[in-house]
Target: TetR/AcrR family transcriptional regulator
Amino acid sequence: MGKAARQQQDEAAQAVPRDVTSFIRYADYLAHLIETAPKQTKGERTRDKLKFGAIQVLDEVGYHAMRVSDICDAAGVAAATFYLYFDNKEQVTSVVLGECLEASMKMMATRHSGKSAFEAIRASNMKWVQVTAANAGLMRCILQLGDEVEEFRNLSNAANKKWYERIAQSILREHGTALPHDVALLSAYALGSMMDELARKLLIHPDPALVDLQLRVAPSHEDLADYLSVLWHQALYGRIPADIDLRPAAAAATALVGRDPG
Model:
């Protein structure tokens, strides 16, 4: 293939839009956005380089250890250039992690049309496990910044509330008017908080005892997603239909309430 043909093929590939849900790793999504962005000014390109550099450094070393010089090295720009676009590392971190948080929520979204309640839960939890594992360093930074910057903590809480509202609406679609909205929302918060704590102890700040247990009981992403989905379904909808195939740990967990013979 000639150079011109390869260039034309590359341009055609870039022209094909990719939905955010097709990505697992945020850095890959950000790189795609930068590569496919409409024609930019030199200043816009430099700002994007700094944002991408910040994401790389945050993912590797975390917020507390990151230095402005690290960002500039990753971006390939002079140190003084940074201050033309951002005041300090807190500001650039707030910007890039805010965008990461918003994109991550979209990455975790799945299409539930035609799926049973359990299949929908399993698809959502599988995407959650994948996205959280692929972005563990950035998730750690989101927690670090939220502990120190109230404005960012409020942003994170608002994003979580929006996510839990979506879950509550899914619960209400299954239960109809028999369940008050606030009860559905509190249920979503409770189950979501379980997921957040598992993410912290398995991926973000690993608890050796829990990690060892998880590797024995539900070692793969699929095993863990299946197991968590059984807990979700049993809490919200009751017994799992008997015709659904489950991985060993998930199947064992159904003994808590039994299987629905259908």
